[in-house]
Structures are given as structure tokens and as C-alpha cells.
Amino acid sequence: MRSTIVGKAQAPQLKLPFDVDKIRNEFPILGETVNGHRLVYLDNAATTHKPQVVIDTISRYYEAQNSNIHRGVHTLSQRGTDAFENARQIVQKFINAPTPSEIIFTRGTTDSINLASQCLAQLVLNAGDEILVSESEHHSNIVPWQMVAAQYGANLIVAPIDDTGEIVIEEFEKRLNAKTKIVSIGHISNALGTINPVREMTRRAHAIGAKVLIDGAQSIAHIGVDVQDLECDLYAFSGHKVFAPTGIGVLYGKRELLEAMPPYQGGGDMIKEVRFEHTEYNDVPYKFEAGTPHIAGAIGLGAALEYLSTIDFRAALAHEDELLNYVSERLNDIDGVRMIGTARDKAAVASFVIDKIHPQDVGLLLDSQGIAVRTGHHCAMPVMQHFGIPGTVRASLSIYNTRHEIDYFIDALLKAKSMLA
Ligand code: PLP
Asked: Core-most of 29, 101, 221, 278, by most CB within 10 Å?
């Protein structure tokens, strides 16, 4: 189903053979009981669970390293700083960024896109200019652009999707013109699972001189991301969607662009020198990291990405892909089920509606069986408007899900359907 499973960044790394039972044992929450049933967690597009090594790394940070970073000469502060900067290097390698200075720690994808939009707009946006997004974006990749468009008198332009959930590339191209200064596209749609051809779209946007941001919230854990191969100017993701804690995320940016962009938040750590008359900003990436960061979060993110480098990530994603094919087939076989999002290239997400049954009722009945799915608009209201529905039931997968869980989910869904019909 997925044409690109692992990009260059992950391909050459290590590996222990993929064993889903072994992987599951590393995620303690998967042993939890919910409403008297073993948890079946199919809400991974919302957030992923954390392996023991991430939990332990965070505990160890607070037990042995906790201190504010960068400013201290004492030993604890050095330990904290080293661990934090080491995490930056781990992220750099994971997404194949050329240098660690191109990795900005943020609170998550939303924060990264807000940072990018406010800072990039100062550099490139003028009245009458255009920002191009697609109809399948998450609200986090719409609203920040609407805000800067209003601030600068620019226009937000939307490339439509078709009824499979793919961006219509000819329509995307038609909307690229000399006024297009920024293109911001989701790598994988969280509501539909569509993998967008962002590499090709980036090339086309660059041909007319636009800067390109890729919202990688859903791709970071489901495709091997290589920012040099993608050639994007900016790439945003959240730690919590890739087995790391909440409250930490990343904005990657090409160094030259980051150096040219002014910061939008001021405070400690982002300066070299402060005078009342004039302040000199720090070098990248610190220029964009005002205030005390989420130190434990960054270190936890480093641990999560290192964890992924100890497993056969390629095999793990192939397993996830096989599960997506299986769950899609099983859902397609159920009378009255309509899949929402049937793109040729998809990852990890099976979104659907059932005739005459509200998604929320399905979600509640599944929860009573210990199954976690998400219901509603998934922060992608324009997608729901496109399909003329208020929301979907979304089962979203991760490397630790199993075929047995899918069978259990389908049985529970059939039961729920017969109760609600
Ligand atoms: N973009 C996409 C495609 C997402 O799926 C999400 C979260 O679901 C976000 C952005 C926002 O991520 P966060 O809430 O972690 O900032």
C-alpha cells in the first residue's frame, strides 16, 4: 500500500529481527486492562505509547541530571546540557539533517508550524502574496497560516483533494504562481492516511521560488524521513507521535533559511547580548529557543529515536503496512461500512463511517470492549466537509499492533453494529 517504506536516513542502520511480541513487551501500557479487557490501542495517530527505555531515561534525567541547561558551570548543569545537545544530534541523524544546528526543539508540530509561520512570514510575506496548503491539512497546518495571512494581507489558497483523499496534483500545480511564497503540506493525512508526494510537490514549489514546509506529524513514525532527500525548507514533527513524551517537538530548517529568519519569541537563551538600546540574537538554533526548554522531553525524544534504531524499522513498517491492508480488507467486507480515504499510497490509518450509525456511539461501544479508537473530525474539518460527513471512526496503527488485535476489533465492531442498527 505504501510505496516508500523507509527512506535513506534509516535504510543502512542496524538491526535485531522484528518480533512484534518482543516489541509489545517493551511498552508497559500495552499490558493494561481497560473495562475488564486487555487494552487494544488503535489510536496511534493521536499519540503513541512509550517504551520502557523512554520512561527510564526520563526518570534517570530527573534522578541524576536535572538542572537548567546552557547557563551553568556546575556539573549537573553540564550533564543536563550534554544530554540535551546529544538528543539534538540524535534527531539530526534520524531525519538526516546536515547539521544539529538545523534542529530546533519546540513543544510539538503545532508549535513548530506557529514558529515557522511567524518567522518565515517576516522574511518572505507581503500584501497580496499567497500561501498554498491542501484541503487535507490538520487544523495546525491551516490556522497558523490564516493568522499570518491576516497579519500581512496575504491570501490562503487551497489545493483540493479528490474522493480517494489524494491531493489533485494538477490543481496543486495550477495554484503555484509568482505570488506563491509559502507552500505547507502534510506528509501523511491524519484523517485519511494518504501519503502525499511531498518530494515532487516540493520540487514544483521550489521551481517558482516558494519556501516549503512539510507537516511531518504523521510521517515521522511511519516513513523513514530524510529531509535532504525531500529537499523541504522546513519539516515539523511532534515527539509524542513517535514514542516520545508530549510537550516536545522539532522544527527542522535549512541553515541558511534559519539564519535569515528573524525570531518571534524573545527571552533567555536566544540572545548573545542584551542592551536597552539593542539586543544581539544568538546563533541558530538557539535564536528560536527562548526560555527554558522541555529538557526531559528532548532527552526522552532522543531515547525514543535511539530505540527505533535498535529495531529493524524497515521490517516494523512492513508489519504495520500488512496490518493496514488486513484491517482495510476486513472493514470493506462489512455491510454498510464506507472507507473514507482510499488513496493508492496510504499509511497506518483506516477511517470509516457506518450507515446510519454515529461514529461516537461506535467509539463508546468499542471502548467498553477495551478498544481505543478515535471518533470525530480528527482536527481536519475541511476533510469532513469534503466527504459531507461530521466525522469518522479512525483506527490508527503502530508497529506494536497485531493481527489478533485487528480480529478482536472487527468482532467488537460487528457486535457494536448489531446493537446500534
Ligand atoms: N499535523 C498533523 C497531520 C497531525 O496529525 C497533528 C496531530 O494529530 C498535528 C499536526 C498537531 O500535532 P500536535 O498536536 O502534536 O502539535
From this structure: 221
